[in-house]
Amino acid sequence: MRMIVNDHNNKFINILFCISCGCLYDWQCGNSPYTRCRTNKTVVDSYDNRIDIDKINGRLFFTLQYPDEFEKRIVSIPIDGSIDGYDVISHSTLYGQSTYQIIQGLVQYVGPISKSMVVNRSVRIAGTTYNIFFSNNTFGTELTWTSSSDIIFDEINNIQWTCWPYVNYIYRGKIGENLNLATKIYVGNVVSIRKNNTSLLIQDQLGAIRQGDSNSEVKPIGLLPILFEDANLGTFDFDSNRIFFTNKYEKKIYQITLNSDGPKKVILDNGFVPTFFKYHNDWLYYQQGGKILRVSVKGDNNPQVLFDSASTEGHCICAQGFTGKSCNQCDSSNNIISWVNGTPRCIPLGSDKNPLTCDYNYQCSPYNVKVCKEIVLSGGNKGCST
To answer: How far apart are CA 278 and CA 249, in angstroms?
Structure first.
């Protein structure tokens, strides 16, 4: 709501009563054109994209796309939701879509030390794969493919646990390392894993959650003790003594307390069951229909919307590829800055020293040999080609 008043010198003053603050124009974001005000956006919650939480810095990560940008972005908001539109951070612009790969979005955030991420991409013929997408916009080792997987990271000790249902193994190795170099620690029909201190909570294909050891040598999953089981178990998460889980057919999220004979408690019952959620500090976080939501495990069964694609309230964010508090950082040794209609974007260079996407012929080398044109079967992305 905006009200115009007149001061004693007959000059009009705009007084803004901020009911839900947000930007309207780029100049309100501090360093235009490197900062931009965005009102149209879409939370990309399909393609098995997931949310994740940086518990150290209190940030909630997800995939977002703007209608005038070809590439999707991985962004974060405060764990309690965006308050005023000035707290949305762009962490990666997902450059690199080509004839052979479609980059879909976030699977997992590795952590605040490396700031690396695991992204979901579809490779033509091969299908869905999961890769480390490093903070310098380059792909690392291909981790798994064909089926969804869970990966747990310990950045301090450089350890990665990978649950790969396609091959029915759980691996322990170094972060970003090819699984051929990792150690198999559990074998059997596995769906997903979570880590609780030194324990691994392992969901098998029969609906049981079993307790294993994160430092184990290779063992059959079927011999591990069962903590909880439900034949229609969907997905789960936990805290120290509670398991939160979905039932595939009842469309509810439940809570059970371990080592207790008490009944299961309904946490969410609104006719929708998320395929994935994350627990943090008495809240379950999930995405639904273009929204990022959370629901309290204390039992009010009333989800809170933290970010909504349908909202027209603007938020500030760095122009594509730029970082830093003023959104003007772009490493010139590994990127180019391309200007289109007064708006810049920081585009990483590929192994051939050409940008991963381009806007003009002069950005391509060798000059007059390669030109900037639409990549075949890329969905409209442009690249340097002969």
So the answer is: 20
The residue from 291, 317, 343 where one domain ends is: 317
**What is the rounded distance in angstroms from the CA atom of residue 230 to the CA atom of residue 247?**
8
Residue 186's contacts (CB-CB under 8 Å, 6 or more residues apart) are 169, 170, 200, 202, 212, 216, 218, 219, 220, 221, 224
Is residue 18's pLDDT more than 70? Answer: no
Instruction: Read off the pLDDT of residues 79-121 as tens digits, 9 standing for 90 and up.
Output: 999 887 889 999 999 998 888 888 889 999 999 999 999 998 8
| Amino acid letter, 254 | Y
pLDDT at residue 142, rounded to an integer: 83
pLDDT at residue 224 is higher than 70: yes
3-state SS, residue 81? coil
Verify that 151 and 236 share a domain, yes or no. yes
The percent helix, strand, coil of the chain (3-state, each to 5) is 5, 50, 50
SS3 assignment, position 218: coil
What are 356-382's pLDDT values in tens digits? Answer: 999 999 999 998 899 999 988 778 899
205 and 98, same domain (yes or no): yes
Q: What is the pTM of this model?
A: 0.90
**Domain extent for 284:** 22-317
Answer yes or no: is pLDDT of 6 > 70. Answer: no
Q: Is residue 12 part of a domain?
A: no
Longest dimension (CA), the chain: 84
288-320: pLDDT as tens digits: 999 999 999 997 788 999 999 999 889 999 999
Beta strands in 81-181 (DSSP E): 89-93, 101-109, 117-123, 127-133, 139-145, 150-154, 159-164, 169-173
Which tokens belong to 281?
């500090």
DSSP state of 166: T
Do 348 and 254 share a structural domain? no
